[in-house]
Design a protein that fits this description.
Blueprint (H helix, E strand, L loop, with lengths): L4 H7 L5 E5 L3 H13 L3 E5 L2 H11 L3 E4 L8 H10 L8 E5 L4 H10 L3 E4 L4 H78 L3 H57 L5 H18 L4 H6 L7 E4 H18 L3 E6 L4 E4 L1 H21 L6 E9 L2 E8 L6 H4 L19 H12 L3 E6 L4 E8 L5
Helix pairs in contact: 1-6, 3-4, 6-7, 7-8, 10-11, 11-13
Length: about 450
């Protein structure tokens, strides 16, 4: 429970800004001294017009608004603040000597979130401010999450549309190829009949014709197999059109529901469940990867070298296709406490980042080296590449959330951020990055688990 305004102010990276609006200089001084003592940044205004201008310019985190003021009163000031997009979301607390229920209701109808009666108690004022500042932070986070979800939905919709178009084009080409092969079979059959009629009485040419017929038969069998394969692929394409169309409709309906204000947790859960059923039906071949990286909350002791080797098995094929050499230097019996799947995802993320940079920069002899050793009670894991290193301009940002140098269709910049959170927050370790003479070097330091 938040019980002190000073605790809220000190827990944030920046000091909260509070706009105090009151035409009484004494009241302004009292409130300002109270809030400044709690390390809030204070702005003041003595009437409604100046309060609106300062709020639009400074965008404070909270407004303490008196009701009785010269010019426009507090109710009208609050209504104007709520009618402007730039100040609509700023919480307003009325601070007045009018304690009747009707006045409070009028203030809440104007858009205020709370009502503080003069003379106020310092503890009550700070507690209410702390609560509404905390709610303000939560509201901003929710808005950011909503915007991120909308971006992901748009990206996924575009991906599904492209995949659907590609499948339709391939299905059309396969249908054309099947038709051509059927026509070729018919032509071969006609020619075979003509040759048999012409050469039936000629023993010398009979053997030649038999041999030709055998070759043609083999060709027709092969073509038949290809035609059957084409038909099978065509059927699969037809079967996939409907699920893809369903996915497209579901994604479009999600936007419609959002525009109609029907989008809630239940609707999102239904949408997510429906999409996953269709995708799992079409993508059963990825079950192994899905199960391997399935999120889990269990924490147990595991061997670092074993997990790294299992992770290498997942990327070995893609590394070989890219011509990347993977060098391992791992000590055995390196035990740490944590979630093995989460640690594997961290290593996999480092592998994939290194691979992408090596391929993008077309390194002549691409290499990735992984070493692990026990040093002074810590497990040290080092992942290096020879891709030339990380530019100084971005080296301090790579662990920031949503920071990425890739196209948005390849990621949203959360891989290294989540890796840092898991290493430092869950495993009690650290992750650092630097450059060597050849490329980038990531170092993970984790406390070793005691042997049983």
């Amino acid at each position: 429970m938040i019980s002190d305004g000073q605790q809220v102010a000190s827990s944030n990276e920046q000091r909260s800004v509070i706009l105090v609006v009151d035409d009484d200089a004494n009241n302004l001084a009292v409130v300002r001294d109270c809030l400044v003592a709690c390390k809030y940044t204070i702005l003041v205004a003595e009437d409604g017009e100046s309060a609106i201008k300062r709020a639009e310019y400074a965008r404070p985190d909270l407004i303490l608004l008196d009701v009785m003021m010269p010019g426009i009163d507090g109710y009208e000031t609050c209504r104007r603040l709520k009618s402007v997009k730039s100040t609509h979301d700023i919480p307003v607390l009325f601070m007045t000597a009018l304690a009747e229920t009707g006045n409070k209701v009028k203030g809440l109808e104007a858009g205020a979130v709370d009502y503080i009666t003069k003379p106020f108690q310092r503890e009550e004022l700070l507690a209410r401010i702390a609560v509404h500042l905390h709610n303000r932070v939560l509201t901003k986070r929710l808005q950011e999450a909503k915007e991120l979800l909308e971006t992901r939905v748009e990206e996924r919709t575009a991906e599904l549309a492209r995949a659907n178009n590609e499948l339709q084009e391939k299905a059309f080409l396969l249908e054309e190829e099947i038709a051509e092969r059927v026509l070729a079979e018919q032509e071969l059959h006609v020619k075979q009949t003509q040759l048999e009629a012409l050469n039936r009485t000629l023993e010398t040419r009979v053997q030649e014709e038999v041999q030709r017929n055998r070759e043609k038969d083999a060709m027709m069998i092969q073509q038949g197999r290809l035609a059957a394969m084409g038909e099978m692929i065509s059927n699969i394409a037809h079967q996939w059109r409907q699920p893809l169309n369903e996915l497209g409709i579901m994604v479009q309906m999600l936007r419609v529901d959002y525009d109609d204000s029907l989008l809630d947790d239940t609707r999102l859960d239904e949408f997510s469940h429906g999409c996953m059923e269709i995708i799992q039906h079409m993508s059963q071949t990825i079950n192994t990867f899905r199960d391997f990286f399935k999120k889990g909350q269990s924490s147990d002791r595991f061997d670092v070298s074993s997990v790294i080797r299992k992770t290498v098995d997942l990327v070995q094929a893609s590394f070989q296709a890219a011509g990347i050499t993977l060098n391992l230097k791992l000590e055995h019996n390196g035990l740490i406490q944590g979630n093995a799947n989460e640690f594997s995802q961290i290593i996999l993320n480092l592998f994939n980042n290194a691979r992408d940079v090596l391929v993008e920069r077309a390194i002549a002899a691409p290499e990735i080296s992984v070493s692990m050793q026990l040093v002074d009670g810590q497990i040290i894991v080092i992942v290096e590449d020879n891709a030339g290193g990380i530019p100084d301009a971005i080296s301090g940002k790579i662990f920031d959330p949503y920071f990425t140098t890739k196209h948005k269709s390849q990621g949203v910049g959360l891989g290294l951020y989540m890796s840092k959170m898991i290493i430092e927050g869950k495993m009690g370790g650290s992750i650092d990055v630097g450059n060597t003479s050849d490329g980038a070097c990531f170092q993970l330091a984790l406390p070793a688990a005691p042997a049983v």
